[in-house]
Design the sequence.
C-alpha cells in the first residue's frame, strides 16, 4: 500500500471549512473517481489529527486543457470510513498479530 500526497488547500468553501484538491485532465470531468475521494478523506483525517480540526467536507476543483473548470463538493464521512477499512485490511495482511495497529485505526474511526 503506497500512499503519498500533499494537501493543496484548506479553506472555507460555501460556509464550511474544507480540504480542497486541484485536479487537471485533458477532458472535462463529469464524475470523480472513488480513489480521489479516498485521497481527500485521508488528507482530511491527517489535517484533523494534526491540527485538532473537525473538517468533514472535501472539494475537488477539476480543470482541463479546454479551459473548463468544474467544482465538486463532498461530505467525507463515508469515504473516511472506507479509507480506514482499507488501511485496516493492509495492516491485517502485513502484520496480522499487531493488535496495536488495529486498535489505533478503530480509535481514529470513532474520532471522525
Sequence:
Amino acid at each position: 500500500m503506497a500512499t503519498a500526497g500533499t494537501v493543496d488547500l484548506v479553506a472555507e468553501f460555501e460556509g464550511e471549512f474544507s480540504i480542497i484538491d486541484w485536479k487537471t485532465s485533458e477532458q472535462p470531468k463529469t464524475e470523480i473517481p472513488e480513489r480521489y475521494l479516498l485521497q481527500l478523506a485521508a488528507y482530511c483525517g491527517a489535517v484533523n489529527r494534526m491540527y485538532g480540526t473537525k473538517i468533514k467536507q472535501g472539494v475537488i476543483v477539476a480543470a482541463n486543457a479546454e479551459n473548463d473548470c468544474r467544482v465538486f463538493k463532498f461530505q467525507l464521512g463515508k469515504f473516511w470510513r472506507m479509507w480506514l477499512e482499507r488501511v485496516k485490511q493492509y495492516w491485517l495482511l502485513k502484520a496480522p498479530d499487531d493488535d496495536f495497529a488495529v486498535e489505533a485505526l478503530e480509535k481514529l474511526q470513532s474520532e471522525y
